[in-house]
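Key idea: predict the complex, not the pieces.
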Amino acid sequence: MITVCRHELKLGFKALLIWSLSVGIMGLLCILMYTSMEGEMADMAESFSKLGAFSDAFGMSTLSIATLGGFFATEVGTVHGLGSAMFAAITAAVILSKEEDGHTGEFLYSLPISRGSAVTGKALSVLINLVAFTVICGVFYVIGFVALGEDVLWKEMLLFLVRMLLMNIEIASVTLVISAASTKNRLGAGLGLALIFYAYDLIGRVVPDLKDYLFIGPFSLANASEIFSGQKAPVEALIVAAIVIVVAVTATYRVYLKKDLAS
Amino acid sequence: MADVIKIENLTKSYGKKRGVSDISLTVGGGEIFGFIGPNGAGKSTTIRSMLGFLNFEKGSITILGKDSVKEHVGVLKEVGYMPSEALFYPTMKVSEVIKFAADARELDCREEAEMLCERLQLDTGKRIKELSLGNRKKVSIVCAMQHKPKLFVFDEPSSGLDPLMQSTFFELIKEYVKKGATCFLSTHVLSEVSRYCDRAAIMREGKLIKVDLVDNLTESTVKSVKVTADGVHEEYMYNGDINELVKKLSERKLENLYIEEPSLEDMFMHFYEGKEEVR
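Result:
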């Protein structure tokens, strides 16, 4: 299991660096842009907060983008949420199916490694990648705050990163099942699913009738505006996430252990 | 010697598609066992069932006294498998692939791997994506042999290897077998079977149609007859009283006649084409 995990981490290291540096640097640049826009922000914040449902959707009705915390939550919250969700979705979507798609399964599974421990090793590598992604991006965001000479909002920042990580784990667990059931790389399906989850959350915040059902989608776990405005954690969303993760991981083992491996 | 492979009534289908049906065979310790048949005959299905890639619906497979399903990992520890395709992770170096295979077995195989790489003239510094089919086959050979397994399972091993490397490969097999290993060799190349194997099994359309010593497969009372008579050329297998054959042929106007021992190729084609009857 450890050998498989280490092997996967090695193979996925470049992708981790590319994704985490891209999202982290984009987030850092957003933060650094704050000072240049600070003067105009007060007027913009006033206008943005009066856009009704759209202000709600992007969290600008609860937070002022004129403050660094508010600016971070609305701008970096979106960049990190979407970027990390896509990374989580595609990393897990290919982790099992790539062996059959690339015809490497016959090599891997002829080694004395049970399929169960291979799944564990691979899933563990996805989890480590998600944690590393979150830490790397987090470092960039902290650098941004420090560079501007602002106090780091440690509590909100940590809560934001932990809840984003949880959201990514939920998304990854769903695409892991797709990977287990498929013999082809489902990178497109993974990306599509991440975007659907994002769109669901966005639409849910704009359409009043859908607000009560927002907790079903993973993005409701980590709404940066809610976190930075000090709102309580969405308990229903946390329960749904826990159920989805447990069911999806169990299904992954069941599907992958029973399937015939394609040559 | 005790059976190293024991397959009993193996049945595996792919939905409505045929896989293999009711396969039973045994392979003894120290044997080089040939497994021959045309494409789609069920050779790979049998091998993939043995190694746990496929879940079969009926029958049992015992390898080195262990149930291939219940003691799957234990079986794989003792097996060196070389798949027909020899595909690895393209960005990895050859040395990394070889080390990964050894690490997965929790063994230090450096000495054996070094010897194998030297004999096979394999450059371990190259990346997999830079390798030709033949060189990928060499990596596969090293991964299958470096842990000195008790059983080798090879699926079309020599395709892609040049004649010199083919010769080195079979020399290596003979050396390991001499030290007590057993070899299960699935191949299309009948000359390899007749040259290196003790026994062979012939598969056709998902069924095992013949298992015998290679010598017996070729040394039978069946004769290969090639005759040109009355302006017509005929080739067939004849099993019966040779005097009767000569008597029948003497009644025709012969232009050319060969009566010879059938080669393994002839026997294979005879079984492959489903000629249960011989003249």
